[in-house]
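From the pipeline queue, job 12 of 40. The input is one protein chain; the requested action is below.

Action: predict structure.
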Amino acid sequence: MELSNLFIEGSPKTPQIDMNQLTGELLFTGKSMPENAAKIYEPALKWVEQYIINARPTTNIRLDLEYFSTASSLWLAKILKVLARINGPDSVLIINLYLPVEEFDEIKEFGDITDAFLPISGIFQGATPSIGIKLYCTNDTGEIIKDTPVFI
């Protein structure tokens, strides 16, 4: 049975989630402070568990969330942990993070940008695909004004 795409409409408190099996594009946009994070993220987690069985050679997860709650971050970590198990011989997982200027500059102050991601590196221990992170700096209107790759 072929995996269908997953689309969950966003609201003022929940993200729009758009997962496309044919392109390997997994998008999370908007704000994420749902009353019940499981209701929003459990379908996405189940979808990703099916997706990794026959993942595209390159999977792009785009996290363009202007705000996310602690509960949301726990679910996103679960999703990333599953994606780290993609099992293709030359598979690549690219995590695209969209950050406002202030947060982007904060991360750049780490000296070695990779150090900023040490707290989440445990998620990727033993990962099968090659993993990269690309940071996008956005202005107040959401336009990308600079970007930088990070390799882990």
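Job complete. The two ends are 34 Å apart (CA to CA).
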